[in-house]
Specification:
Blueprint lengths: L14 E5 L2 E9 L5 E8 L2 H19 L9 H12 L6 H19 L9 H15 L1 H20 L28 H13 L1 H5 L2 H11 L3 H6 L12 E2 L4 E4 L2 E5 L3 E5 L9 E4 L2 H12 L21 H14 L10 E4 L2 E4 L10 H14 L4 H8 L19 H7 L2
Antiparallel strand pairs: 1-2, 2-3, 4-5, 5-8, 6-7, 9-10
Helix pairs in contact: 2-3, 2-5, 3-4, 3-5, 4-5, 6-8, 8-12, 12-13
């Protein structure tokens, strides 16, 4: 029986022979095309010749094959995968949460394992621990990133099966009943009180709240609403027609700061909304007020005249809503503990968050008889349910939505 061939990407025994005043180290290397070739290196001594040959073999493995093998650690694989992923056209927010998942979940829980040791059971146990410690959402994000990483390993023949594929479901606590939304009376109360609240007025919250209630948009989309033209030369915010093209969101990018990302959270987020007349009047009013002159033509900039930070605005809304009718904190929205602010969540409106305004819009439209498809179009969702088709052929959302949302 003949001698079995070398594995692809490996080399055989090293032999060393004197060649004049030097030494020659040789070995057979099986390349990634399946052919076995001799490789030779010289040195002033046997040890130097052997080291030179081994170094050449390592370089040959890297240049002719891959630096991802079954002995590659998950930590090293994560770094290799991230180098290629960070240069893609994915949204900055997506890159940020993926990197967070790598640094805070994948490396601590699986980083020390080699690819040959990364079994379905090992991944499943890690995901369950992450779910228990940081929540189901963090575990699902980790599974998504891991699937991409191990898919790269499969393409490099380091593993034959992606162990993420057969992991168990990640349980999520289900909420009973309908999502909680504001009643019409609560909407009127929150908006009326905002116009009389010094904190809310100083942080320009009344119009921000109104805009989200007029449109059902996300807070980042509201911060990016602007007077500009799109790639087709059409007005993004057309007050004469009473429409707004939702085609961007404000994000914070590391090393750059706040910027307008020229795309929405998802493809389904792009939409053209019919604006209620009151929303048009609000924009015209802000155009005439000297203190509202932020850059890029945005209509809901920060009080200091810059782009509005969605995260900071959410925090400002949090303080206002926590303080509303809250006796426990003296209507401040926070307590002072050890000279630090600690949120007070005992107020009657502490359950309200910016996303509640989107739920409220969806509820009002449903109550008014709009179809699930129309409601999904208004909010920028791809599917009104698990069984409905993705958005297709949409243009301006039904103007009935603008009539319903016009208070």
């Amino acid at each position: 029986m003949g001698r079995p061939p070398l594995d692809v990407g490996t080399y055989g025994n090293i032999t060393i022979h004197p060649r004049g005043d030097k030494y020659m180290a040789t070995a057979r290397f099986r390349d990634y095309d399946g052919r076995t070739r001799p490789v030779a290196k010289y040195g002033d001594s046997e040890a130097k010749a052997e080291r030179a040959l081994k170094k050449a073999m390592v370089e040959r493995q890297r240049t002719t094959g891959t630096d991802i093998t079954s002995d590659t650690s998950i930590k090293a694989l994560a770094d290799i995968w991230w180098k290629s992923f960070k240069d893609t056209d994915k949204a900055s927010g997506t890159k940020r949460v993926y990197l967070h998942s790598i640094d805070n979940h994948i490396k601590p829980s699986l980083g020390g394992l080699r690819l040959r040791e990364c079994s379905t059971g090992a991944v499943d146990r890690a995901l369950k621990k992450i779910s228990a410690r940081s929540g189901p959402a963090a575990a699902k994000m980790t599974r998504t990133v891991l699937a991409g990483m191990l898919g790269l390993a499969m393409r490099h023949d380091a593993i034959t099966v992606n162990p993420v594929r057969d992991t168990g479901p990640i349980s999520r606590l289900t909420k009973k009943g309908r999502p909680r939304a504001l009643t019409p009376a609560e909407v009127d109360y929150i908006t009326d009180r905002a116009r009389a609240d010094d904190f809310a007025v100083n942080h320009d919250l009344p119009d921000l709240i109104d805009w989200m209630l007029f449109t059902g948009c996300r807070i980042g989309e509201a911060c990016a609403a602007r007077r500009a033209v799109n790639t087709e030369g059409k007005q993004i915010l057309d007050l004469d027609a009473g429409t707004w093209e939702v085609n961007a969101t404000v994000i914070r990018e590391t090393g750059t700061g706040l910027l307008i990302q020229p795309r929405t959270k998802s493809d389904a987020g792009w939409r053209v909304l019919a604006l209620p007349p009151t929303a048009v009047e609000m924009v015209r009013r802000r155009d005439t007020e000297a203190r509202f002159k932020p850059p890029h033509g945005v209509i809901l900039g920060s009080p200091s005249g810059h782009l509005r930070d969605p995260s900071n605005s959410s925090g400002d809304l949090r303080v206002y809503l926590d303080s509303l009718d809250c006796e426990a904190c003296g209507h401040r929205g926070y307590h002072i503990v050890n000279k630090k602010r600690v949120r007070c969540a005992q107020g009657p409106y502490s359950w309200v968050v910016p996303h509640t305004f989107r739920k409220t819009v969806a509820t009002r439209l449903e109550e008014a008889g709009l179809t699930p498809r129309q409601v999904a179009d208004q909010l920028g969702h791809s599917k009104p349910s698990m069984t409905q088709d993705v958005y297709f052929g949409r243009n301006v959302v039904n103007s009935e939505a603008a009539r319903v949302l016009d208070r």
